[in-house]
Specification:
The complex is a heterodimer of chains A (534) and B (311). Chain A has 21 helices and no strands. Chain A is mainly alpha-helical and 534 residues long. Chain A folds into 2 domains: 250 residues, no CATH class; 244 residues, no CATH class. Chain A is globular and about 75 Å long. By secondary structure, chain B is an alpha/beta fold. Chain B has a 6-stranded mixed β-sheet with strand order 5-6-7-3-8-9, with helices on both faces. Chain B has 10 helices and 13 strands. Helices cover 32% and strands 30% of the residues of chain B. The chains are: A mainly alpha (534), B alpha/beta (311). Chains A and B meet through helix 12 and helix 15 of A and helix 2 and helix 3 of B. Chain A: This is ABC-2 type transport system permease protein.
């Protein structure tokens, strides 16, 4: 397709090769994005059958800052189609951006880092060919996602022009992040750095559009997600914002090629920051190392759960208005106290938060398994570090870290709730409710530790399966009326649903004992067994 | 030194599922010696070392390390030894210097002067994060961490597999210094030149069993000397002498191998033929090694005579 001297030589072959490597991966991304829009469309059409339903929805959502911050501009909420676009577009745009980022980075920086690009470039492959092939593949995927969303949404019964406008907006957002990734892979020498950079830019873009949408002002135009959502599918089907996305994406790709010419193969434009030539005293213990290794993930999870606490707290007011002003709903719940309904809602949100904190705790415990199978444990266990001290340091971080994340979620929910109601006591109640789940979270962590000590090879799969089971129980056991013994399998369901129910010591003490037994079993097993070779 | 034997292993057995990794292995390492632990990949060297470090629990046999039980007394023994793994994996976001300090501190302390000197000698930049190090540089991190410690026993598992020749020379120098200082070194390797240059005694293992153990001189005695002679009269009759192998003519000279205990007879015979030139090469460890593994090579289709593994 090109002459031997061109810097683009070999693009066609690389593109076909990349397409082959991603022949399963990309269809999964596209199917996932399309599936989300289709489910949203079907469930919204079922939910808002009458115009009265829609009006109630519009009244509650159109003025709720938290919902607007998470979703997008409150436009077109007078139609079901508009409500679908409002609710799902932000999530699908995240999927498109991630798909674009992983596709471009995988075929450029990751290959370069692994030395595969060097091998290819020694053949007749031009300097620009790998980047162009990766960008073309990502663009193809974004286009396919746009068309798939358009066609599938039309098939669910929504207007075709708006459906395809929604698809195009999602695809356009993906294209902008294709361009952003094309620049980011030049900037940093490591694939993980690329993911951090692009993920961070997505977060900034999301926050900017959230501010713009809440305030209803120009700030929304500083964000590529804001441009894509400005298409206003089913309402305006505006084309100009899409053209803006395309122009910026193209400019970013051109910039990527220009930057590629200014750097050497294998290196990035940003020089990696050198580390310390000698260790600080705080690193020089098994616990010091564990804290250092877990630090990033712990901060990310804590901040994430804290933000989730803000969102849940903010939504409590909607629950109040939505149910409190709805005679039918009140009748359905047997005319309860509205405060009690809000408490029930908050109790459920803390159970979900506890599941997420359990997921963190399991990932932190399994980090020890990763250290073992990647042979980094061996170097430490060949020093005067005992097995108990080594495993104990990882477990301690998992236990205290998950407790910290729960407490932070309780504090943020409590602060938002205290601000809403003007009662300072709300803070204490929320923190108490959140912290009550800590023993249950520790039991889940204990399950992972026991598996690690006794069945290391299946520990990861089994521990995550347990988390999945507890998730299913929390989400569905009550709604589907599962038998009590099924619910009892999950430690989360042993915890009284504070603040609605009374605080009781017995189940919590039982959970603490169960956690201690599991931890002891894991530690004993680990001290008796071989350090596995992989 | 309070103990005269640093490592004493007999009849060591270890299985992983159906695979028998160690099958009655014996190993004796005296205090103060550099002991070569030789064998190809997969012969059980690393498994033995992991048993010695208390990372694996042996199925059978007796294992003693610095007078203790490596499994039961692991932590106490580890204060007295330093270990360099064969494939060094480090924490990607932690710098080389931090890693050296961490491993050193967990072992019981480092000599900062020695650390600085070793960084200099191995030409290692301690500020780089481990993610950016090459295999050779990761190995240097582990070597500096081990060599800067005040250990009695150094267990080194193929420590030079990623080093360039210049660094290999630095490494050999360091090992000689350790020996001069009375330290014990167990050096696992499949680089025979390295073992020949450094080791007082070697143990050769194969399929989880020790097949030969002794000083290089003792082991050489078991094998053959290579000779090239140029004589006035034809030396064809040499081929009929006992202990002479693989005789061949090469441009007016005769090449052959001779068993060490037949050397005297061969030299007497040669004296009668009018010797004009003679070179003799002592058996290398490589020849010794290939004799033990020659049948495996033959099974793999390597023709006899290509190495020194003549039978």
């Amino acid at each position: 397709m090109s002459t031997g001297s061109s810097t683009l030589a070999g693009t066609g072959a690389l593109f076909r090769f990349a397409l082959r490597r991603d022949r399963l991966r990309l269809p999964v991304w596209i199917a996932a994005g399309t599936f989300m829009v289709v489910t949203q469309s079907i469930s919204s059409q079922a939910l808002y059958e009458t115009s009265a339903d829609l009006a109630a929805y519009r009244a509650s959502v159109g003025s709720n800052a938290a919902t607007i911050a998470l979703a997008g501009p409150p436009v077109g909420l007078d139609t079901v189609a508009g409500a679908v676009a409002f609710e799902i577009s932000a999530t699908v745009m995240l999927i498109a951006a991630l798909m674009a980022m992983f596709t471009v980075a995988r075929h450029t920086r990751a290959d370069e880092e692994a030395g595969r690009t060097e091998l290819l470039r020694s053949a007749r492959v031009g300097r620009h060919a790998p980047l162009l092939a990766a960008v073309l593949l990502a663009a193809l995927a974004c286009g396919a996602l746009a068309l798939a969303i358009g066609a599938a949404t039309t098939a669910t019964g929504l207007p075709a022009p708006g459906s395809f406008a929604l698809g195009a907006a999602v695809g356009a957002c993906g294209l902008v992040f294709t361009g952003i990734t094309a620049v980011a892979v030049q900037a940093t020498g490591h694939t993980r750095g690329v993911y951090g950079l692009v993920g961070g830019l997505f977060a900034v873009a999301f926050v900017l559009r959230a501010i713009g949408d809440i305030e209803g002002n120009w700030v929304v135009w500083t964000s590529p997600i804001g441009w894509a959502q400005a298409t206003h599918p089913f309402t305006d089907d505006a084309v100009v914002p899409l053209l803006l996305c395309l122009a910026v994406a193209a400019a970013l790709v051109v910039a990527g090629f220009a930057l590629l010419d200014r750097r050497d193969l294998g290196s990035g434009l940003l020089q990696p920051r050198p580390g310390r030539p000698a260790a600080r005293r705080t690193l020089l213990s098994p616990l010091g190392l564990a804290v250092r290794l877990h630090r990033g993930a712990l901060i990310a999870w804590t901040v994430g759960l804290g933000l989730l606490g803000v969102v849940y707290g903010a939504l409590a007011e909607s629950v109040e208005t939505l149910i409190g002003e709805n005679e039918e709903a009140l009748a359905l719940f047997g005319d309860p106290d509205v405060d009690q309904l809000v408490d029930a809602y908050l109790g459920t949100t803390f159970a979900v938060t506890a599941l997420l904190a359990s997921a963190y705790a399991v990932s932190a415990v399994l980090r020890a398994r990763g250290e073992e199978s990647e042979d980094r444990a061996e170097v430490l266990l060949a020093t005067a570090t005992s097995r108990s001290a080594w495993l104990g340091s990882h477990v301690l971080v998992a236990l205290l870290g998950s407790a910290l994340a729960m407490a932070v979620a309780g504090v943020t929910t409590g602060l938002v709730r205290a601000a809403q109601t003007g009662e300072a006591a709300a803070l204490g109640r929320m923190v108490g409710a959140a912290v009550s789940y800590v023993p249950a979270v520790w039991v889940v962590a204990g399950v992972a530790v026991a598996l690690f000590g006794l069945l290391p090879r299946v520990a990861a799969a089994a521990a995550w399966s347990a988390v999945g089971l507890f998730l299913l129980i929390t989400l569905f056991a009550e709604s589907f009326d599962w038998p009590g013994w099924v619910s009892d399998l999950s430690p989360i369901s042993w915890v009284p649903t504070l603040p609605l129910e009374e605080w009781t010591l017995a189940p919590l003490a039982g959970l603490v004992v169960a956690a201690a037994v599991l931890l002891a079993a894991g530690l004993t097993g680990f001290r008796q067994r071989d350090i596995a070779l992989g | 030194m309070t103990t005269t034997t640093a490592i004493s292993v007999s009849g060591l057995g270890k299985s992983f599922g159906a695979t028998r990794a160690l099958d009655g292995l014996d190993l004796e390492v005296a205090s103060g010696e550099v002991h070569g632990f030789l064998g190809p990949n997969g012969s059980g060297k690393s498994t033995t070392i992991r048993v010695l470090l208390g990372l694996l629990r042996p199925d059978e046999g007796r294992t003693e390390l610095l007078g203790g039980d490596p499994w039961r007394d692991a932590v106490a023994l580890h204060r007295r030894l330093a270990y360099v793994p064969g494939d060094v994996t480090l924490w990607p976001t932690i710098s080389g210097g931090e890693t050296i300090d961490l491993i050193g501190a967990l072992r019981g302390g480092l000599d900062p002067r020695r650390r600085a000197e070793l960084l200099e000698r191995f030409d290692l930049d301690p500020r780089k994060k481990a993610r950016t190090y090459s295999k050779g540089n990761r190995q240097k991190v582990a070597l500096v961490a081990a060599l800067a410690s005040d250990a009695e026993l150094f267990i080194l598992d193929e420590p030079t597999s990623g080093l360039d020749p210049l660094m290999e020379a630095v490494f050999q120098e360091c090992i000689r210094e350790l020996r001069a200082d009375g330290r014990t070194v167990l050096l696992s390797s499949h680089i025979l030149a390295e073992a020949e240059a450094l080791c007082d005694r070697v143990s050769i293992i194969r399929l989880g069993r020790t097949v030969q153990s002794g000083t290089l001189a003792e082991l050489r005695h078991l094998t053959r000397m290579s000779m090239v002679v140029e004589t006035e009269r034809p030396a064809d009759a040499l081929a009929d002498l006992p202990g002479v192998h693989d005789l061949r003519h090469d441009d007016g000279r005769v090449r052959f191998d001779v068993d060490t205990d037949a050397l005297d007879d061969v030299l007497r015979h040669l004296a009668g033929l009018g010797v004009r030139g003679l070179t003799s090469t002592p058996p290398t460890l490589e020849e010794l090694f290939l004799r033990h593994y020659g049948d495996e090579l033959a099974a793999d289709g390597v023709p006899a005579g290509q190495g020194a593994g003549r039978s």
